[in-house]
């Protein structure tokens, strides 16, 4: 059973692993190896580096005590990070996290959410009412480049944000 709960500092390593696997494995059908390496380089974790998830509104998904995904949003309504493990893609974990983020945004009185979405996320978010506002090209230091989708969700004209997952 999927449980959604607030992020804790002790979740940092597990969320980093979710991010790495989501990009390197889960996004393999959308991005080549050079693109994925630029997006999620293999660098040692730096415990002295600021844990930005602690300073955002961050929720984690758990299944049997294992962190399977997370989403974070700035207080101004920018969906910053949204990742789930490859083996749970399409199984409701991202949808449950999305519902929680949208609910929290509404609770904060936000009228609009924004995101810089990957191609895979663009499809997921589009099914949930997000609209494509533009596309920008990302150029990485290793020479890789890819499109990033600028999207938004108008909370003043959408339903509850709830999605039925079969």
- Compute the number of helices: 4
Going across the biggest sheet, name each strand in turn: 1-2-3-4-5-7-6
Taking the sheet with the most strands, its summary is:
7 strands, mixed
Level-1 CATH class name of the domain at 2-110: Alpha Beta
Instruction: Give the number of DSSP strands.
Output: 7
Walkthrough of the structure:
- It contains 4 helices and 7 strands; from the N terminus they run βααβββαβαββ.
- The protein has a domain at 2-110: Gcn5-related N-acetyltransferase (GNAT) (Aminopeptidase).
- The protein has helices at 12-26, 33-39, 93-107, 119-126, and strands spanning 2-6, 57-63, 66-73, 78-84, 112-117, 131-139, 145-154.
- Mean pLDDT is 89; it is low at 160-166.
- It is an alpha+beta fold and 166 residues long.
- Strands 1-2-3-4-5-7-6 form a 7-stranded mixed beta sheet, with helices on both faces.
- The two termini are 14 Å apart.
